[in-house]
Structures are given as C-alpha cells and as structure tokens.
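DATA SHEET
Item: assembly model
Revision: 1
Owner: S.N.
Input lines:
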Amino acid sequence: MIQASYLRESVLTKAHSAKQSTQQLAILPTASKNEALQKVADSLWEHRKSIFMANLYDIEEAYQSQLTENRIDRLMITEKRLQNMIEGVYQIIQLGDPVGKTLEIFHPSNGLVIKKVSVPFGVIAMIYESRPNVTIDALSLALKTGNAVILRGGKEALRTNMALVAAAKKGLEKTQIPLDAIQLIDKTERESVDILIQAKGMIDLVIPRGGAGLIQRVIQNSLVPVIETGVGNCHLYIDESADLNKATQISINAKVQRPSVCNAIETLLVHQNLTETWLPEIIKAFYEHGVEIRGCPKTVKSVKDLQVIEATEEDYATEFLDQILPIKVVNSVEEAIAHIKTYGTSHSEAIVTENTKIADQFLAQVDASTVYHNASTRFTDGFEFGFGAEIGISTQKLHARGPMGLKELTSYKYVIKGTGQVRT
Amino acid sequence: MIQASYLRESVLTKAHSAKQSTQQLAILPTASKNEALQKVADSLWEHRKSIFMANLYDIEEAYQSQLTENRIDRLMITEKRLQNMIEGVYQIIQLGDPVGKTLEIFHPSNGLVIKKVSVPFGVIAMIYESRPNVTIDALSLALKTGNAVILRGGKEALRTNMALVAAAKKGLEKTQIPLDAIQLIDKTERESVDILIQAKGMIDLVIPRGGAGLIQRVIQNSLVPVIETGVGNCHLYIDESADLNKATQISINAKVQRPSVCNAIETLLVHQNLTETWLPEIIKAFYEHGVEIRGCPKTVKSVKDLQVIEATEEDYATEFLDQILPIKVVNSVEEAIAHIKTYGTSHSEAIVTENTKIADQFLAQVDASTVYHNASTRFTDGFEFGFGAEIGISTQKLHARGPMGLKELTSYKYVIKGTGQVRT
C-alpha cells in the first residue's frame, strides 16, 4: 500500500509540474522554441557518450532477459541512429509554428469579433514501447507545439530514455523553456500507465504507440481523451480492370518493401476474373520474395500446383506484420468493400483499377484514414505527406485521422473581443 | 441474466443496423439530404396530435413521479415548441453541406495527388436527459452531416421521443435515407447506456448532454471516443482599469439573463482597487435582481453593511446554475488567472478592462474554449457564432472546442490518386 501510494504520488507530481508549465509554454514565441530545439540537438550530441553508455546497459540487460533480436535491435542507439534523431530535431526547427494561427474569423452583427485561434493541447502523455527515438521525436514535437510532454517509455529502454531526457534538459537549461515541460516517468510498473491515463485535469491528451495490447489497455482505462494509433490490417484490391503491371508492382511493394510496419498490406483481394491469369503469377512472385501465401478456397483451387495453404477467418483478422499474406478471391468491388468493412482497421486501403467509376466507388465507400487508387498503401506516413514529422498514425475519426504532424498536436480556442456587448 | 442478454441484444442490433446504413448515408447528395429534412419537418407537423398525446402521457407520469416543475417544464411540448423544433429543421436545410469538401490538397514530387476530404463520422450516439427537442436537433444534424444517429434520451421522455422519431421516420419513408440511420433506444435502463458506449466498432462517437453525473459516467465507461460537453464553471474578472459601466452591464447580463445555462457566470472576480467603489454598487444591483451573494473575506469586510454570506471553497467549485454568485477580490490579473485555472471547467471566461495589455495576457493565458474581452460569457453558443445550429458545447480540447455545429460532426479521410506509385 505504501509503495502504491508512493508510485501514485511520484507520477502525479510529475503530471502536476507539467500542467503548471503549460501557461508559460503556450505563449512562447517561435524563435524561443526553435532556439530551444537547437540547444536540444547540440546537447544530445555533446552528451552522446553517456547516452551510448546507458544504452549499452539496457542492451546488456535485454540480452540477459532474452529479448528477441528484433526487440534488441529496436532498442539499440548507434552513432548513426543518434545522428538521425538529431537530424529529426533539425527538421522540426525548419517547420512552421502551428500555434497562434487565426483559423477563422467571424463578424456577427452585434459587433463582436470572434477569432478561432490555434493553441497547444497543454499536457500530452506519450505511452510507448522499446524504441528510444520516440522519446526525442515526442519531446521535440511537443516543444515546437508549445505542449508539455510526459514520456512513459518501455521498461527495457529506461536507462537510455533517462540519458536522452537528461541530455535534452541540459540543453534547455539556458533557454526560456520551463524544464518541467518535459517529464520522464521512471517508474515502469504497469500501474504508472493507469495512474497517468486517469489523471484527468492534469493531462489533456494521451497518445499510445505500440502493440495492439498496449493500445487497447489505454483505451479501456483512460479518462483522458485518447488518440488511437497504429494497428493496420490493410488491404489491396485488384479489380478485373486493373493494369496488371501496376497490380504486380503495387502488390509486391505494399507487402514486401517493409512488412513489419502498419501501412503494409495484410490481405490481398483479387477479382475472380483474374484467377486464371494474374493470380498464379503474383503468387509465384510472392514466393520468390519469401512471402507465405494463405488462400481462400478459390485461390487454393485455381493454383492447385502451387499447393497454397488454406486461409482461416483468423488469418483475415490478423495484422501479421510479417511475410505472410492471405489472398481472397471476390466477385466484385462490393464484395471487396464488404470484406474490408468486416476485417479492416480503418488504416489504409487501396484499389488497382483502370475503371474510374469503380475506383471512385471504392474511394467513397471504404471507411479508412487513407484510401488509394493505383498506389501502394506504404505512403500513409507523415513524411510522405510532407508534414515533415509524425507523432503516429491515427485510426480513429475524432480530431485526427491518418498521419499526425505538428498541426494535429494543437487544439483551438475562440478569442472574442467586444466593446461591452451583452446578450438580449 | 436472460433479461440482461436481451437488453444487450436489443441495443447492439440497433447499433449494428445504424452502422450498416452508414455506407449509403456517406455518399448521399446534398439535395437528397435536404429533401429528407423537408419531409421530416412536414411529417412532424402532420403527426402533431400523436406527439402531443404521447407527451401528455409522459407529463402525467412525471407529475405522478413528483418530478420538479422545472423538469416537467423541460419535458413539455407545446404547439409553439413543436413549431420551434420544425423551424430548427428548416434552418438546418438552409446551411451548407459540410461533407465532401476538399479541405487540403498536397502534390508530392512523386506525382501522387493527396486530398484531405471531409466525411461523416459514421454512427453518433447521443445520450441525453429530459428535453425532447434534443431528439429532433440531433436527428436533423445527423441527417445533414450524413451520419447515422442512435438516440438515448431520458426515461421520462420516452413516449414523446418515440412519437417524435416515429413521425420523423414516417417522413423519411419516401426518401433516399435508409430508415436504419435513425435508431431510438427504447430501453431506458442505465445499462443500455453502458452497452452503447462500449460498442466500439459499431459507434464512432458518443456525445453526452446533461448533468455532470451523466457526463462523468459516460467518460468513465466509454470505449468509444467521447466529446465532453457542457459543464460551465465560468468566471468574469473585473480589472482595476475596467470601464465600470461596461463592468456592471456585463456582470448583470452574464449572471442574471439566464442563470440556468452553462455559459452563465458562477463566480465574479474583482480587482482589490474596486472594493471601496464599484463592489458595493454591484452587490446592491445583484440583490435587486434577486441574486444571493457569497463573498470572500475581503468582500464581506468591504461591504459590512450588506451582510454578505461568506463563500466556501466548495462555492468556488460549484456550477450553481442558479441565482447564487460567489464574489472574490483578487490582487491582480495573475491571481484571477490562477483562480480560474484552479476552479474553471474550460468553458467560457471573461475580462472587463480598458487595459489592452492586461486583456491580451488574460486572453492568452486562460485555457478555456472561449475567452472574452469586454463582452458577456453568454455569447458562447452555436447560433451566436453563426453556425446556424448546435449539438452541444465541448469543454475538451480533442477535435472540437466550444460550440459544435455541422462541421464539428464531420471527420476527414485522405483520398490518394496515383498512376502506379510504389514506395522506394
């Protein structure tokens, strides 16, 4: 009990300090924020030795805990990776300041002037897993948008995150940024997440980034508004009127170029008129790329000689993030849309066709953050959209949908100036 | 157990039907939606007798259940009130269609065309209390924005709501609107709310409207994104440099014109240099308007002869929605801002001053949906902002802040057209 209350106090004290800093943050001029980011970038490089050292301890412990090679790789900060993080900070300096913009202005007949002005959220809590680059991304995006940030990274990256935040804060010492604007939760018990996401009034927004389990737990327990990110059960539908060359290139790219990311496809839908012609070809091409195919009965039947494994319902519902691809033959674009409606996660969905009417039907009726005609789903990304930065990809419809950049980390307020108006 | 599972099935069947209708709704042309609204308006008037009859039963039962006069009044539909509801439908017909607008367009160098297009949310669940006009407001706003709507009104208004929805649906019979787009939950057990707000995947947005208890319960239990509405612990700060004539008029208007609404003020903050001069005057003016004053020690002391009751901490934290007003003397605008930070609910906050610098500081540092300089807080309202309609006033920062009109009932998606682009 004493420990639980100590944990609670520790987390809430940090949340409170972050909240206290927001008033000062909200009114910082762009130049001060950019100068602070510059100092962060310099300080990260200056303190690289202590960062690498901390990272080494984390990696050593990760080996001892027998984490997978994959997770250890995500955890590791090489000199190159640190340079990339710093490069990311420089990119954020270059971007325009999204705060303090007049978004709309109304002039009602009573003489009031009503301005809708962009403002920071206040305090954003980032809850994430092993990648330490999220620490610097989130911290820099928060600084630029005038938000305070509470960072709750994974247990296995704690020493690294502490070193990164210490270096960043060291850089901020000589700037106008209140140091309380950046808080690292160094308690990695699960409960520290629950305490954070229930700190309504102190935290304005929670962004979870990580596996489906983490995200669902945050949604289920949060009292603070959440932006749901990331899970991508994405589909590509090849219509009977597709340019088959485009179909092949997009299919391979959307699955193979980087299967472990959320905008890679997880099921291929193919019009039945292509089962005899294009389908066997693409399956062979996937085999050459080392992709395991799981087919619907029609797929299995149409390419008997290739001995395709039969797909299960569960396969259609799974975000594999791996070299596995269910293929389903459909009768029409309507059936493709219905399949996506059942199994999709509203992330990214694409059609390949030369029939504009069918393309438009697909684009209008598929309910997802990003819908594509004749392009790979892999473009759903803040950098590809030209945002210059990305805090995550929203799969919900409230506030932000798809890639979230700087603008998506702001809210707005109405500022009304009068000359004594009262309501009659 | 059988009853619980029956309730569950009944609610979820309706949510599922609503979800099924969204695909068709999302692509309806503006003319079809306006024609449908016209039919709703006509049908409401045509079926007025059955509406009044149903309302009479509800009111009779309300008397038997000894509901307060106030609540019975809110429940009642007079001919005039029905006409007002119908007038509201006509106003929504006049407004522009917020769906299908290209909000932004990007042309990256790879030749993709990326359009950000406004779309409906999908299914919106409205959870509200006794006012039956919310039923028609919500239904009409949903139709115009291409959203399906699930209506869960208060128990005491059930017959009235059933008659209103039946009339509206009768009108929709000869239109392109799928009737499943409008669902009334006729199970008024508390559990029906819990089932609704946890129907993630079937419902895209929950908007609770009503008392603080209802709103908090929805936030605590919802798995679907929620827009928090309504609770307004609003303040008015009279600065030492105020035009005292404006100060008096705005103070009286913001408190007295309609004390029962969320944008009325709940505490008056007064600069200490006004305690000898303006403060006694305004207290007398409030007394003349029947307002009970509760003062801080300085207020009580400065107007000894008026025998003001002493205010408690709880008074500052209370949204009275009544003719009661705590008054607190502060040393500075900073102290006023700090008081608002502690007790405010981010709704509407105002300053009266002729000092522009102090006004700007207040407008920038007070974190609320709407901040005012020299005007009454009573203007925080969708109609006053020129939105032509209002579904509620958001006090959160995610998605929508302040009055929510048609635009706030839409989300967006990215529609990307390519010529075979793949990511390298």
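QC remark: The mean pLDDT of chain B is 95.
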